[in-house]
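STRUCTURE:
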């Protein structure tokens, strides 16, 4: 299954590309994901939890940058995992290409090739595609929040700047919630059917 998506980051293309190569930055923005230790082959352990209604899928595996082409700002992320309480498995190869998008921002084009087995695969292609796109949107929002420049403290009237406040924790994507996700996906499908009926 192939899923193509794109999103923007408020960074110059070179900076956005470096950010996407940093698993410490990217993994916490993946909904339900938790990055673990580094293995001898350079891959990182990864656990991902996804809820779909009454079903909960917990996958454990690895993720790594398998290719990087710096001149083209293109990298390939590969992940493979097994369901911890089932016979299913999941693997993904995600090719990300970064380009300038004007005004100091960048565009990231992503092509994911997914392979699912087990219960998750039986939920249907449409559901899997919708969930995958929602995960990419949530990840993009989290990365954009990390990349956004901090607002300078106001020093009007010559007053000394306020004492430095502790840095806020880095944004982290929340695990995918079955109920809210189901209602959101249901609404999106109804809206698509409504638009088709108006044509």
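SEQUENCE:
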């Amino acid at each position: 299954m192939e899923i193509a998506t794109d999103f923007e980051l408020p960074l110059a293309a070179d900076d956005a590309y470096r950010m996407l190569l940093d698993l410490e930055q990217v993994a916490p923005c993946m909904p339900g994901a938790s990055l673990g230790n580094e293995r001898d082959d350079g891959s990182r352990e990864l656990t991902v939890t996804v809820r779909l209604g009454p079903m909960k899928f917990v996958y454990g595996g690895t993720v790594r940058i398998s290719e990087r082409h710096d001149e083209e700002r293109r990298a390939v992320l590969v992940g493979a995992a097994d369901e911890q309480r089932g016979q299913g498995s999941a693997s993904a190869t995600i090719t990300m290409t970064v380009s300038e998008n004007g005004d100091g921002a960048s565009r990231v084009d992503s092509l994911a090739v997914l392979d699912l087995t087990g219960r998750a695969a039986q939920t249907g292609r449409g559901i899997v595609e919708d969930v995958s796109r929602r995960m990419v949107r949530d990840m993009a929002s989290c990365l954009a929040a990390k990349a956004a420049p901090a607002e300078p403290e106001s020093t009007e009237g010559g007053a000394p700047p306020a004492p430095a406040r502790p840095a806020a924790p880095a944004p982290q994507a929340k695990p995918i919630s079955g109920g809210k996700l189901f209602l959101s996906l249901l609404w999106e499908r109804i809206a698509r059917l409504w638009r088709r009926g108006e044509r």
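REMARK: The two ends are 29 Å apart (CA to CA).
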